[in-house]
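Entry for the shared binder. Reason: the reviewer on the internal report wants the predicted structure included alongside the sequence.
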Amino acid sequence: MFRPFEWQDLVPLAEGAWLTIQLCAVSGVLGVIFGLILGIARTSPSRIARWISTIYISCVRGIPVLVIIFFVFFGIPLLFPGLEPDKFSSAVIALTCFAAAYVAEIVRGSIEAVEKGQSEAADALGLDYWRKLRYVILPQAVKIMVPPGIGFLIGLVKDSSLVTVTGLLELTHAGNVVTNLTGDPIKTFLVVAAMYFAICYSISLLGRLYEKRTGIHVDPLKLPEPAGL
């Protein structure tokens, strides 16, 4: 027997939304860290670093995130018997791998978007590659990275709904549970959609605040295209 959708059903949905926020915060931070490393490697003078980062980025960007989630959740215990990460850890690993590849391309595009004259001026001052990157290129590139990075983070929040296939009780899965109890998917998923919208809109507001304070707006579609393999 189903029961009507009631206010008490907002509790598991709110808990699912909080778990979604935690999941995206952890995987987003880790994705930025690894993406920054990969993006810098993608533009480094080292051919090996460029080769490794290019292969990783191309492979991950060419695979649906759902396949990555399945591979991490089911593949790790099969490949490494005795190592069975919990559902949250598996979701974090999968979304981090996914996010790192896309953040890396944002980093690469932002670095290449910095005027070449800045790099030439640093060379004229006798700065080596790493000092030039640290003191001249990256401070300017970071300002360009943030707007498209905010857009990607919003996409990551929505893509996190796919981890419901692992049984993790995030927002979408909580919506499924409530629907099974109430038999009212319309009300349930209207609330779920409103919660996703609230999370994404909050992130968007932070991005707008950043753009307003810095006076920088970058269209990610206008960033330089990835270089060939």
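Summary line for the report: Residues 22 and 106 are 23 Å apart (CA to CA).
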